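Q: What does the assembled structure look like for these inputs?
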Amino acid sequence: MVKLTINNHRLEVPEHTTILDAAAILNISIPNLCYLKDLNEIGACRVCVVEVEGVSRLVTSCNNAVAEGMVVHTNTPKVRWARKTNVELILSQHDARCATCVRSGNCSLQEVANDLNIIDNPYKEMLTHAKWTEGFPLVRNYEKCIKCMRCIEICDKVQGLNIWDMSKTGSRTTVDVSHNRKIEESDCALCGQCITHCPTAALRERDDTDRVYEALSQKDKITIVQIAPAVRAAWGEDLGLSREFATVKRLVASLRRIGFDYIFDTNFAADLTIMEEGSEFLQRLQDKENQSWPMFTSCCPGWVRFIKTQYPDMVDQLSTAKSPQQMFGAVTKSYYARLLGVDPHRIFSISIMPCTAKKYEAGVSLLNDAGAGQDVDVVLTTREIARMIRSEKIKPEFLAEEEFDTPLGEGTGAAVIFGATGGVMEAALRSAYYLVSGENPDADAFKEVRGREGWKEASFDLAGAKLKVAVASGLGNTRKLIEAIRSGKSHYDFVEIMACPGGCAGGGGQPIDDGRELAAERAEVLYGLDSVSNLRFSHENPSVLRCYEEFFEAPLSHRSHKLLHTRQKDWEL
Amino acid sequence: MSRLSIITSNKAQETIEFLYKDLERRIVSSPPGLCPIDLTASFVKMSHAQTCGKCAPCRIGLGQLVDLLEDVLNGDATMKTLDLIEKTANAIYYSSDCAIGYEAAHMVLRGIEGFRDDFEEHILRGRCTSSLNQAIPCISLCPAGVDVPGYIALISQGKYDDALRLIRKDNPLPAVCGLICEHPCETRCRRNMIDNSINIRGLKRFAVENAGEVALPEKMPGTGKKVAIIGGGPSGLSAAYYLSIMGHDVEIFDKRKHLGGMLRYGIPRYRLPREILDEEINIILSLGIMVHNEVEIGHDITFNEVKDQFDAVYIAIGAHIDKKIDIDGQETKGIVSAVDILRKSGDDEALEFDGKNVVVIGGGNVAMDVARTARREGAKKVSIVYRRRKVDMTALEEEVEGAIAEGCEVLDLYTPRKVEKDENNKIKGLWIQSQIIGRIPYDRPVPVDASTESILIDCDKMVLAVGQGIESKSFEKEGVPVTRGVIEAMEWSGVKDIPGVYAGGDCVSGPATAIRAIAAGKVAAANIDEYLGYHHIIESNVDIPEPRLADRIPCGRVNMRDRDASERIKDYNLVECAMTLEEAQQESSRCLRCDHFGLGVFKGGRVERW
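A:
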């Protein structure tokens, strides 16, 4: 233990504690900007400086440890002046037109500048200008980048793709795609973790809300929305709603106010995915010798991009089942168009996703199987839909809950947990057990695969068949797992991968709360919803069963193959 | 009004003089990887501040050049801009009245020639290919990448054993390097920005001498793979050390009586005492490495026989043959090569300098080594004849000064012309021709004959120390690729088209330094391990102390003292005195900890394992 004094308060903390953390124990908060605990402790912004007695120059509190007898002052004249100057300098290299900024109100730089009462900036604006690839689902705004380096760190340390790096030198140093590449030439998985860890709006998703408004303005278009599982656990965050209050039914009510014609649940398609993917898995098992193992889930497009660029020889091990988003799109423009008795070209299919890679997936040219344009026309992130609700001046806090439309608004508890790491695996195992044995297992029989660890494994007995499964989330963990498979150290039958740490709950399209990782908290909501569901098995979703009866006949039928399966190998990147 | 007055400096001028010094030191510690165009623009801007303002090309042109260079950097330039830069710089170069103008323009012209690719990258693609990826100057300049800030921090806490463990992760010869390393780590030390570089080698020596016995890391489980090391010098020993720790069976083949290579047969004992070298070698051999002394490849065993008997081979035979100079009468008795002298010295054979007038030809470290050895062997007079100026000598300055202090005479600006012999074909004198230092075609001036007559100096023994070559013939005969005597190996030390055969050290680089040989051994060990199908990790598991937060107040650098010259020439004991505890504590506290402060904390910092 180390004894020290901060702002005249004495305290004792373990060795190696940073000054910042020690101060936090006393509820003394030290402003900081670039710092992200365990991830980016590089003291780049110099905002968290403090004065240590006996040292004339200031010390960054985020990455310097306490020492015995240290006397720290967090708000001396020297500190105040340096801190304010550094923020002013950073602002001089930042396009601070906050009124037209997607992160206004949720920007760490704005908060620090406001807190420090910076009203006039004595420094001339000197912005970095560079061109970004138009239309790419991930957008970098060089004028807003404050060079905190967080995007580099999250991509290097957590996702292991090293997409970003420092670029140029000297005064022109900025952050850009590594190795002088353009973003579309890089192996970016589009996970969006760099966006959710950016303190400003230097990184954001491509904003597609105008395309939605355009569709809403066309009288002959039938706008159909699907809401992904993980969105329901997070959408209220950007609107200041508590997690308990921000139910999916209030989201449905809000979307109805915007004017969408039908509001459905991606959970329906998640259940459908389980039927197809589970059946595919059992079919592959019957032909075990001729298959490459393990079979991988395919619902995460960030993961699909990852395997296509990093391990192209393993792409055939992906389940051919489309993701729920794409199944939903295909069903909407085929089965549902038939139910409505309309020309599928009139349907405008919108998905609300916790994800940036989904924008890529919807645009893959092959994914137009229903024959009426892209199966999904527009993907909005959770953040974009919150922005739409705000701009419509809808106040969800005054809305009563409303039900999804039927029949595609029906989903089970097995579907809702798709939004958390391990959820797809658990849902698949629940139904696979049924398909093999003809009876339902205990719905919680496979809960071993839950939890936030980056790489989990479990073995189950599926009516006599021993199954070894693994679940990974985060691409750094994914690489480790795949390397273990390739080197023969690990053997699995079925593996679920989600590109984002914690799964879609922590997705790159989710609301941003700087410095906090909310995937676990959001996953709890999803598991809560599952536990109170009346239906907890995908194969019991009555709408799915009806859909098979009326349209697809059975999983893996000819029509299923046409509409619900794909060859990821042929997707362009 | 007085007719004349004494020029006095004012405060502003004095301050600027300090700033000039600051700038000089700052340039010394420039990190690698900076954008050359950005730097050129800065240099020209500074030159522009030096302009007197009289002449148009300099007063106006330099400013325009800065502007155009900034356009390139800002992505506002086209290839036409580059043409304009070149034309402008040429006009300034040809038409400026004084060097302030034409030399500034010359920098730009050199740049256009020297890094045209960088200009084009900026102009055509709006990107800079430079990247400051080497954050810690000392580590990035150490060929072996030794964790310098880490071990200096450990030394400052008195954890000498941990310091040694940390060094051994990258360099298994810390005692040797503590004494004789050329310390490239010190050249761009960021401490130069404040006062002077840290005495890194001195601190390393201090750690080694105070650590006591520090056990080697445990050997990893045996792999059953056999690796042959040809040549037991610093490179071979280093490769042997790491490969052995990785669990491979290592055997060293060496031509000489004892291991050590140039450490024994190139470096005199007063710089590297035999007992210290022997101890360090024995520590390495204690891993269970088998040694075959006095085995010459191509004579006692063929290279291909070795290759067939082992799973992998590392060739590290060094550069042990002497180069000749074109001087009349080289077959004369009494003319010997430095390599011969140092080999004999290494094997404790008689050197026959006693009472002789010895002339050493050359200006490198080897020349100094021979001269100082001759002094210790009782030479009557030792003269070092060098054709350029003393300042142009490639030997380290302290080596030259050491030789002079020990009574060696430096005859710089003289070139040997003709040997004078007696009736027994034995040398008795040397005609030397005075030189005049001449033009600088690239980096060193070329001497030319002065228009004076040659002079005759007494000489009963002449030692040629004009470079070494590599005995690569027998390897070449057996299919190892050799170009101009040097064995061809790739940057990962693999020999082209011969899987499993690696080469490194002096025999690949040409005569270089111990630390470069050590680094090559380390690289070879890693790649041989991979080749054998493994990926053993070498690490130290040493905790690096938190950096001190104290102010960095300018403070002189501790240099090691040498023993009194008149005393030290009487023996072969170590010339250099060690740092005292007091000195080591002060010196280690000067380290700026670039691993924590600066880019090292983010990118390009500590490599904990390899």
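The mean pLDDT of chain A is 95.
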